[in-house]
Amino acid sequence: MKLTVVGCSGSFPSAESACSSYLVEADGFRLLLDMGNGALGELQRHCGLYDLDAIFLSHLHADHCIDMCGYFVARFYRHEGGRCGTIPVYGPEGTERRLTTAYDDVPDERSMSEVFDFRTLKTGSFEIGPFQVRTERVSHPVEAYGIRIEHGGRSLTYSGDTGVCAELGLLAGGTDLFLCEASFTHGKEDIPDLHLNGREAGECARAGNVGRLVLTHIPPWTDAEQNLADARAVYDGPAELAYAGAVYEI
Ligand SMILES: [Zn+2]
Ligand SMILES: [Zn+2]
């Protein structure tokens, strides 16, 4: 599997990065995890606009899904070749309504379905293209999912947005690369069921004996190096900060 960080800024874009979006590729199949603010532009550095095969939306906060509105325009009003066919879009209950409302002026209320095949996420295991995936509800103010993706005996786990929860441990156990959010700062913000800090991400990585920890979704106002140090204080394996354009072969 190849993982490309399209965008990794938490909550709002930074000068260096768009919001959450990660491209996962194997066997020529392209799965995009989230499409937050600014991600659609950055995505075009890594693949063509119409090269995606499926999209997974971890939850419906704007910093994870709002560029789907622009992507609707690109697919629905495509200039050359006419309207695109549908691609699967996995998201929580209400994803179509959420995106239609955000766009505000679709030709009719089912227009998004002409280019997106919306599939409602539930906890469980299923296939997306060549990937075996497993989803779990994680701990966030809205319906939110973490995902573990397996291919060819290797695995990637993405936390989405979450506070400390057992479900995240179920997904991350023994994973090769753990892409884990670390929005908060240890000792500074402590709001349950919202986000992790660097130390908590490190503790989850240690408990799951993961192969590599990549911290992501760090907002521009948070000291990323502090979060990395906090994670390293409790997790002995390789740990680093995500950055836009980073590529991992898993
Ligand atoms: Zn977020
Ligand atoms: Zn969120």
Q: Determine the N-to-C terminus distance.
A: 5 Å
Uncertain parts: none
Shape from CA axes?
globular
Helix content: 10-25%
* Main sheet: strands, sense, barrel: 7 strands, mixed
- Number of helices, where a helix is a run of at least 4 consecutive DSSP H or I residues: 7
Report the average pLDDT across residues: 97
Major beta sheet, strand line-up: 6-5-4-3-2-1-14
Derived structural class: alpha/beta
Rg, please? 17 Å
Bound chemical compounds: zinc ion
Strand content: 25-35%
Question: What's the helix-strand series?
Answer: EEEHEHHEHEEEEEHEHEHEE
State the total count of DSSP E strands. Answer: 14
Any overview of this molecule?
The chain is an alpha/beta fold. The protein has 7 helices and 14 strands. It has helices at residues 39-43, 62-65, 68-76, 95-103, 166-172, 198-207, 224-232, and strands at 2-7, 21-26, 29-33, 54-56, 87-91, 116-120, 124-128, 131-137, 145-151, 154-158, 177-181, 213-216, 239-241, 247-249. It has a 7-stranded mixed β-sheet with strand order 6-5-4-3-2-1-14. Strands 7-8-9-10-11-12-13 form a 7-stranded mixed β-sheet. Strand 7 (124-128) and strand 8 (131-137) form a beta hairpin. The N and C termini lie close together (5 Å). The relative contact order is 0.15. The mean pLDDT is 97. One zinc ion is lined by residues 10-11, 61, 63-64, 161, 217.
Name a few traits of the molecule.
about 250 residues; alpha/beta; seven-stranded mixed β-sheet
